[in-house]
Design a protein that fits this description.
CATH class: Mainly Alpha
Helix content: 55-70%
Number of strands: 6
Number of domains: 1
GO molecular function, one term: phosphatidylinositol-4-phosphate binding
Strand order of the largest sheet: 1-2
CATH topology: yeast vps74-n-term truncation variant fold
Structural class: mainly alpha
Number of helices: 9
Subcellular location: Golgi apparatus membrane
Protein name: GPP34 family phosphoprotein
Strand content: 5-15%
GO cellular component, one term: cytoplasm
InterPro entries: GPP34-like (IPR008628), GPP34-like_sf (IPR038261)
């Protein structure tokens, strides 16, 4: 499961089937940023310190990541520009992500108005296990961040306003981990990309 999809499950109102971000960013911006994090975790997005670039043109299997690869192209881009491209060239990310989770039976897909399909759909939670696993991943990352995926989940959860829902004991670990990304320490390659992503999101 993509990190972006775990974020959707964490932001989902399980009963009403809608996604609402709790931070200042729109869902489109947040999910575009999350897909950039997924592309990083897949080993495809690199940085020279100021720009991002892809190190391979071979498309990834997940259609959203393949679309993102195509949107970014092979030129080096400032992170702010990469986020704008992802946001603009991958429209309706919220719906595409929800539909994908519904196709895998993790969510229901219910018309908002039965006789008016164009009114859209609600996506009540179907798999409590999937949501619980996502919540457990976030708590584990806050308690003992060890991998780039942990740091990516924390920076996105912070931007989405999810960290305030953690138990008080986990807050210190979460913000200590984010401090690693905020520092000027010599970070591993994927962490350097994530640190730039965090700066871009904080500047939105």
């Amino acid at each position: 499961m993509l990190l972006t999809e775990r974020l959707v499950l964490l932001l989902l109102d399980p009963r009403h089937g809608s996604v609402r971000t709790q931070g200042i960013l729109t869902a489109q911006t947040l999910f575009a940023a999350a897909l950039l994090a997924d592309l990083t975790l897949a080993g495809r997005l690199q940085t020279d310190g100021t720009h991002w670039y892809q190190d391979s043109a071979l498309p990834l299997a997940h259609p959203l990541l393949a679309d993102l690869q195509h949107a970014l192209g092979m030129n080096a881009l400032p992170p702010q520009h990469a986020l704008r491209l992802a946001r603009r060239k991958l429209p309706q990310l919220r719906v595409r992500l929800l539909d994908g989770l519904a196709r895998r039976d993790l969510l229901h897909r219910v018309p908002r108005i039965k006789w008016l399909p164009r009114a859209g759909h609600r996506y009540p939670l179907r798999s409590q296990q999937a949501r619980d696993e996502s919540a457990a991943d976030l708590l584990r990352a806050a308690s003992a961040s060890q991998s780039p995926a942990d740091y990516a989940l924390l920076l996105l959860a912070d931007t989405a306003g999810l960290l305030k829902s953690l138990p008080p004991a986990a807050h210190g670990g979460a913000y200590a981990a984010l401090g690693v990304l905020d520092s000027n320490a010599d970070l591993p390659p994927q962490m350097r990309v994530l640190a730039l992503l965090r700066r871009v999101l904080l500047d939105q």
